[in-house]
Amino acid sequence: MHTTAHTPIEYLERSARLFPSKTAAIDEFGTCTYAELLERSRAIAQGLLATDARSNASGNPGIRAAGSINAPAPQPVVVFMEKRIDMLASFLGALMAGRFYVPVDPSVPAERARNVYAALANGQPEENGPVVIANADTITAARAIFPEGRVALVDDLLQHTVDSAALENVAHSLVSSNPAYVLFTSVSTGMPKGVAVSHRSICGFIDAFVEAFGIRGDDVIGNQAPFDFDVSVKDIYGALATGATIVLLPRRLFSAPAQLVDALREHKVTVMTWAVAALCLVSSLHGLDHAPLPSVRLVLFSGEVMPRKHLARWLEHLPEATLANLYGPTEITCNCLYHIVDRSRAYLDGLPLGEPLGDRRILVLDEGMKPVSEPGQVGELYVGGPNIALGYYADPARTEGAFMPNPIPGALPETVYRTGDLVRIGEGGELFFSGRADNQVKHQGHRIELEEIDAAFERCPGVERCRCAYNERFKRIHAFFEGSAEIDELRRAVSSMLPGPMVPASIERVERMPLTKNGKVDRRALLNA
Prior knowledge:
Strand content: 15-25%
Low-confidence stretches: 57-66
Mean pLDDT: 91
Number of helices: 16
Radius of gyration: 23 Å
Number of strands: 26
Strand order of the largest sheet: 2-1-10-9-11-12-13-14-15
Largest sheet: 9 strands, mixed
Helix content: 25-40%
Distance between the termini: 50 Å
Structural class: alpha/beta
């Protein structure tokens, strides 16, 4: 069961109508049905409308309805809590109130959380600033970190009696091009940038995602990603769109692979859409040896290149499952390319990025903005189509730099997103990730992609995973690897595969790679370890 929706709210409403008593979500504190999730979301929406009414002289809770004539732009709702059912209901309640949600993890440094809030406030008076939703565990921290904010306790919002007419007023005037969420990502300057994604983009992506991978109403989706990471968008709305069940796996389980596998077995998880680093954590710590996972039928991974040895372990332990490599930055709404793993293929050149997912325009251009198509050539990837993000919230300069007119001339204007990712054209026309345009280092007069060095190490026996980092001050490449290989032998092997300037100045074994909050290997932290 799946039909096109104009906003993600329709996914929830349809599933609640068709499967009211079915379990929609499970966290470590309990469960809720689709009918209950809808009821909670509507109550939170009503509470947010009441907050609007108190801050408007007219007292009219419908004044912020998104599609009203001369209505103000939709306003943000910061959701400040660990992922759980009430966080999910807060997201949906924000949408039902005609606003957009911004997840902020309580574990992030207070300064970063305040920077996010300041970016959202965008110079507005305090009484019109973002509402912050917290729970009993985070309310004290929220009031300390956002002293100028309107902090609301989710339990209080849930007590509101729903005025169906008020919510229908908002729903009827909702514009699908309005932002639904803003996710803040780190940048080199240290100031976060907020990627704004519309209702329309979520639905366009989810419709294609559900169709491509056959997500079904009887699926149980094991959610790994934090809710401020866009991998979770696939879990949340993939479940709501099909009537599947989402299991919110707590963060602590990812430090205990055996317990994590037990949780997957207990809940009979069928679909895992996880970051590569999370899968590698399980396989490197022998979590797959703990117990079989007979229910898992689909493993989708993204975020970085999947090491071949780890892929082999997952294929071995899940002989009947389908595995797929997904590619796409936050700015294009989750993913734009995918490749179904072929168990009979050796993948000596690595996993390809695959074919376009849904309604996407994929361009590979050289430095002169000319198309690249010959095997062996490398170009930068640009993505177009109706599902790319709206831009960076209240940041026109960054938006203009990344969301640009299609450089290939046409009769009508079209916006494409410049990913900054380099791809190589394979012999069969497949695309292979070839590093970052801005992760390219100039070393001893050579332009070097650190990912190419990573791949050379990972071809060596005894290397589970490798990540290299570049010390700008001393102009040195340093390699860090997980595995049992002897360092001297490893240096000899890599020296036979790579030109001299690409051989790292140092090679160091690490027990575990440090990760960014979004589950990618933190190369900068490796240098500082």
